[in-house]
Design goal:
Layout: H1 2-6, H2 8-15, H3 18-38, E1 47-49, E2 52-53, E3 64-65, E4 68-70, E5 78-79, H4 94-103, H5 109-119, H6 123-139, H7 141-146, H8 161-167, H9 172-182, H10 188-194
Antiparallel strand pairs: 1-4, 2-3, 4-5
Helix pairs in contact: 2-4
Length: 196
């Protein structure tokens, strides 16, 4: 059965769960406060909130990406902390990219079509996500270092499904663990390597 084997039902449940969206927003707020408390990594100055607009597609209505700005004159550098809500500069929310990409493995074309229509995702976008996971992501320094954490090794040909199964993301807390695992690649500096 596809929904049991490939996690179709738990993916759909997470994509419709308002509590997941609220939890992810709270975790992002906590990550921002941790970064603020550390101060500017360049000059040691105090950091102030300097959020910017985001309007992710396919999921929750998060309107801002939490960010910080150094208050020291002469520095004023932006510091964007890791996020569990956004996957770099992608237009779609991070959990949508992860879960829909995972669901895409093993689904019949009719189900993929219905999924695309429900979330308003173009087929070319799904293909770009697939290529990103299978080529860009697996060649990144992040993945080269992180993949050693998984025993047995994950099947790179089925990413991100193999990640979802390894993290057992049918549970809300385990989905959060997966998104926290990916959070280091969501900062502007890390994302430069992962841009297609």
């Amino acid at each position: 059965m596809v929904s049991k084997q490939y996690g179709e039902s738990w993916c759909q449940n997470h994509l419709a769960d308002q509590e997941v969206f609220q939890l992810l927003e709270k975790v992002d707020g906590d990550l921002t406060e941790e970064a603020r408390a550390q101060g500017c990594l360049l000059c040691g100055g105090k950091l102030y909130r300097s959020d910017y607009e985001r309007k992710p597609r396919g999921g929750p209505l998060w309107e801002v990406r939490f960010s910080l700005c150094c208050g020291k004159e002469g520095c004023r550098r932006r510091h964007t902390p890791p996020s569990v809500r956004f996957l770099g500069r992608r237009v779609y929310a991070g959990l949508v990219v992860v879960l829909v990409s995972a669901m895409n493995h093993g689904l019949k074309p009719e189900r993929v079509q219905r999924l695309r229509e429900a979330l308003k995702i173009d087929l070319r976008t799904l293909e770009r996500w697939r290529q990103w996971w299978l080529v860009t992501f697996v060649e990144s320094s992040f993945w080269r270092e992180a993949r050693a954490r998984f025993m047995p090794p994950l099947c790179q040909k089925t990413l991100p499904l193999s990640l979802c199964l390894s993290f057992e993301v049918e549970r809300r807390d385990r989905l959060l663990d997966l998104l926290q695992f990916l959070a280091p690649i969501t900062t502007p500096t890390a994302w430069k390597e992962l841009v297609m």
